[in-house]
Amino acid sequence: MQDQRYYFVLEAQHTDNFSALCRIYGISRKTGYKWLQRSQEDAGYHNQSKRPHHSPNATPIEMELLILAKRVAHPAWGSAKIRQVLLDEGVQGLPSARTCAAILQRNGLVSKEQSQRAKAFQRFERAHCNELWQVDFKGWFLMENGRRCYPFTLVDDHSRYCLGIVPQGDLQGVLGHMQTFFQRYGVPDAILSDNGMPFRSTQGGYSHFERTLMDQNVLPIHGRAYHPQTQGKIERFHGTLKRELLAYTRIKDLTHAREAMEAWRQEYNEVRPHEAIGLKRPADLYRPSAQPYADEVAPWVPEDLPTFRVNSTGQIRIGGTSYYFSEVFAKTVLSYFHNPVTDLIHVFYRGFELGRYNRITGQRQLRGICRR
């Protein structure tokens, strides 16, 4: 391109037909005169920068450095979060979130993956705190001592408040953790988990986790099998935990994991703005449940329906035949209702329906816990 402009200028100095010369080179007369003027000014033949000589509205370099420093300190934070935190710290004259994003991109601090992740998507959430908690184990990771760490996590669906992170070396102790959280925050209306152990029985019955929740009048809900999107809040929380902490911290052992994760949890709840809740902090929205945890659960005595007892091996008898129900309910009295229209027997425990059975065959038609 520069050679073409050079030879055009040479010929233009000796031509009698400037318009014809421009046509030969495939340019307009305006462009031809511009090339001639640049040659006379010794400006060279390359394309000139379109950047204005003066930018009175440009972000001051001191402000850019503040934005970049915050990004370096929190590499997983986006422009909106960084801007909100700086505002909260009293920084005046901040540019828009879009300009902050441009500053990050211009300095090579935004990857293609991060840009894709920042695209808007539809969110669903409960209307109030403690309507639904989401619970799960994050996938294990290897600590520096060569052992695996399984973080047990609990998040409030409405506020995104992280109720707790418990790093441990196995998948045990869930009921003890739940008791601690119930005593600290009260009990929610429902808890959503996946279908794995220990949240759901692998034998087709019911788990201790499910019965413990029902004894506290909490509805157990399970996500669709092989569809982690059902638990989108806690899956996203796990991604945030990985990007903001685990990607930059070498966890030595469980003691170190507890210290690091608790410190990060405090920052997540109280410092880090959350775009899904209008750049507020989860701690700004979350309030403990008004429903207290019951330290002692009274035995349930059905009053309005006929009853039967689950035997010591978890069997129930329907239509003269015994069927496996659940060892978790061994020697427990349940109530039932026979629907003459569908000929199904509905089985109840406390305020929950546990399943529906064919009165003739005894086969279970529905295994799903729901409120009566």
How many domains? The number is: 4
| Derived structural class | alpha+beta
**Shape category:** elongated
Q: Which band does the percent of strand residues land in?
A: 15-25%
Low-confidence parts: none
Assign a percent range to the helix content: 25-40%
Compute the CA-based radius of gyration.
33 Å
Q: From N to C, what is the helix and strand string?
A: HHHHHHHEEEEHEHEHHHEEEEEEE
Mean pLDDT: 85
Q: How many helix segments?
A: 12
Distance between the termini: 79 Å
Write down the CATH topology of the largest domain. Nucleotidyltransferase, domain 5
CATH superfamily of the largest domain: Ribonuclease H-like superfamily/Ribonuclease H
Condensed summary:
It contains 12 helices and 13 strands. The chain is elongated, with a radius of gyration of 33 Å.
Question: What features would you describe in this structure?
Answer:
The chain has 372 residues and is an alpha+beta fold. It folds into four domains: 39 residues; 57 residues, no CATH class; 153 residues, Ribonuclease H-like superfamily/Ribonuclease H (Nucleotidyltransferase, domain 5, 2-Layer Sandwich), CATH 3.30.420; 65 residues, no CATH class. Strands 1, 2, 3, 4, 5 and 6 form a six-stranded mixed sheet that branches. β8 and β9 form a beta hairpin. The protein is elongated. The termini are far apart.
